[in-house]
Amino acid sequence: MSGAGVVSTGSTDGMGSTARRHLPDAPFLAAARRERPSRRPVWFMRQAGRSLPEYREVRQGTGMLEACLTPDLACEITLQPVRRYGVDAAILFSDIVVPLKAAGVGVDIVAGTGPVVEHPVRTAADVAALPRLEPDGAAPVAEAVRLLIGELGETPLIGFAGAPFTLASYLVEGGPSRNHERTKALMHAEPDTWHALCSALADMTLGFLRAQIAAGVDAVQLFDSWAGALSERDYRELVMPHSARVLRGLADAGVPRIHFGVGTGELLGAMGEAGADVVGVDWRVPLDVAAARVGPGRALQGNLDPALLFAGHDVVEREVRRILAEGSAAEGHVFNLGHGVLPETDPDVLARVVDVVHAVP
Ligand code: CP3
Question: Which residues are annotated as catalytic?
């Protein structure tokens, strides 16, 4: 597709890099840059996935990580919510553990549980033995991005990765954890080992995001989903330097950087300082309050409680309008949920949310 604003799609420079698309009219990118978008942009975290019947259909017989590493399937799943909802951005169908898997770490995604790690990483020797992500490892993901750039027209594509702390939590705990007790024990009892682990994960994340940017993504989101489990003091001392190295390492890439976590009301200022252009906010903090905490020079993304999508149309519409009003306090606002779409969500409810967001001037 060669829409008016697209300077180049799919052409490579001989080094595997795709020329960056120029999408001056994309509302999502304008809001992320704190410019004036033609309408309030909206997309949904986890829009590509289990709440869609067409997703369940194409995933049949294919494991989650296998699907992520199969370019044409990842491309199709990424496009599904764009076709259905007319959202203002696509998010690459992938997972935060994909670079670990691609590097050779024994990790799988167990349905109903989440990522499970075969050999948890708990000692200095475990950290030293952690494999690196070779450039080839990201090749299937880069290929999916290139396919998508050819299909998406004027819709921006968001690439993403897990932040060092959230990835470390899965590696240290061996799977999902409510209290992150082994992770916190390692952070405090063996800070050198902790920093070595986060440093290796920051390298991996940076390499993985650079590969996505080289292939053509228009923005990136760093998911530090579980950072809200930390005090601000621990976050600033033990986690933020590693996330900041990832985000600052992308400063010259020319794409907006979104930084998101859940339960991070106390960390919003720090998450902005880490080097984000857009700070993601969950539903616990109203966006006007979040704007004051994050301070000038950054846009916000959020923050409808995904559970409220089950409360009926009147409640949903009232909440969407409240969030749009509160979001006006920010220098830029990208409408989203406060966390991912829940699997049982009725897709028609999300379609109506998009319509309401787009209808409000
Ligand atoms: O947003 C999107 O639509 C893009 C796809 C996406 C997935 N995972 C696909 C997926 C994204 C952005 C992620 C990120 C991710 N993965 C995060 C950060 C975002 C967040 O929710 O906080 C985290 C913590 C993970 C780890 C992970 N992977 C979990 C907790 C789960 C759910 C496990 C379960 O079954 O309840 C997964 C699996 C997963 N990732 C699914 C999808 C569509 C479901 C697996 C399936 O369809 O079989």
Answer: 46, 50, 59, 95, 170
